[in-house]
Amino acid sequence: MAAGRAGDIAALLQEDAFYSRCAARYRAAGFGTPGSAEERSWRNSWPPLFAALMRAGLEDLQVYLEYGTPGGGRRLDALLVGAAPGAAPAGVLGLVVVELKQWQTCRILDAERVMRSDGLVTAHPVHQVAAYRSFFQHWRPRDAPVLDVRGVVVLHNATAGEGAALAAGAGGDAGIPVLTAEELSGPAGALAGLLCCGDLVAPDAGQVAAFENIRWQPSSRLLDHVGTDLTGHRAFALVGDQQDAFVRIRAAASRYLTAFDPGTAQRPNGQSGTGSGAIVTVSGGPGSGKTALAVRLLGYLMRQYPKAAPRFITPSGTLRAHLLDATRGHLAARELFPSAGALRSTARQAGVLVIDEAQRLKRGGTRGVPADLAAVLEQVPLAVVFLDERQIIRPDEGTTVEEIHTAARALGRTHHHLELTGSFRCSGSAAYTAWVDALLYGTPTPWTGHTGYDLNLADDPFQLQEEIEHATAQGHTARTTAGFCWPWTRTRPSGATTLPLDITIDVPATHPGVPARTWRAAWNAATALTHPDDGRPLAPHSQLWASHTGGHQQIGCIYTAQGLEYHTAGVIIGPDLTWNNDHWTAHPGESHDASLRGLTPDQYLPYALNTYRVLLTRGTHTTHIHTTNPTTHHLLASLIPKR
User: Fold this and answer.
1) Mean per-residue pLDDT for 511-529?
2) 166-171: average pLDDT
């Protein structure tokens, strides 16, 4: 975002225009628009760092501020680049990763987590730097300059005692010092050593160019480790038409990737790439195994075609969070799963892209396929796109197989379409997914049962909650989701130990002597809720709600459930979708989703149907349904036999 010699940047820090230029570069790099807190942190943290560099006599080191890794998965606060004395132009370069924090105090929860004074739980800064260091160590290509990677944490508002406590809490000797205001203001002669730059000298122009020209790519060791983990994971085993699709995609990879060389090949549009290419679309309903196949495919491509820089991208932040969580043992693996916002920049570097949940891609203002996906089809020799057209849930999202086929034909690209027809989620019950589709899109039919799958209608949300609690007590993963028909309070007071009970459902008295009641529940947490005293997790972050401890006590929504599964599903059909006069009626005014509230009922209906289709098909063994509308409850009671 900003790069130059330390002395040159230091001279600019008093100019408002410098920060404005940095904000513009930040946006141009695809990081979004920096918020006021981000810009405030620049103004507060950069001057102390550069003052220390100047006092240490390091004004000629090359500095990069907000250095972004190629997949957009990380942004380093600052990166210092120097050279070992007497090194050749392309010889050993010393890299120092600098993590800047404005903190003064924090509570250390464990070697990987700390709790800030405002109650937010975040990664231990030493652990953060270790992950950045791992990236440079595992993503350096063989022909790049040799890199000596170090790291330092700078707490410019803290005392030496506070810094020492933080360093001790990192566990073990990570070789990453924690510097505070006291060290930064200490004797100038010791500063260079404290900043891990004591043996570094100014890099010459050739060395800077050599560093900036590095094309970061994962090492074969990293690819082998992560690829083996993904391929060997039991959740990603392939059967039936999944295996058939895998074989056909492997054949396409052999044709288009075997001779792929990112340095010499021609891309399909005449830029650099292979000269011809293919798009493979894979569609299938809920539980058909799309994600399992997509992840298994990534593992295969990483090991077989490392030069093609395989990447896995999904616009589902929830699915991406789970993939990152699954590979968290490999600190450098994050770049294999770039964010959807980095789709275009990734397409310029990759020879093969696996895109899952493609129906969630933003359409923008263009017709046909989303603009970001169009860029992929133009540039990437092989793109494998997984989608389900009946999981389009917003008017600004979505693409179809037909649109992709039309775009491929216009580009002169080969298009193969594969369909997954199996069902691996609902105990293999294609009967249940067919029942859901008939309920929502066709003629509702009675549920006649299926061996191994349990469907139940709950009379009220208290009964539904009891079922989820019972399944959890039995050791099953059980979660409840609901239509987005209640407000969601995303902020909470510092030190809070509970979430706001935003969801309220009145349950009328149905029998003499049984009073009316109100059921209350909390949505999933926008940020993880941790006990302020001992750091115990009380509620996971919304993106990990489906799998992490405590998630069964909050209610998920379409954005936290799509793409995931769990043993037992509870589903609350809210007042935004009701059954009236033998057809479904949509009520967008009952929605609290800002992107949908302004639609007409007819416009809202397909999104509501698709949303509840997703929610109703998350359970692998059991689904419990409750609806807030009496006529809808009557319909379901006529279709689902009582236990």
Assistant:
1) 88
2) 80
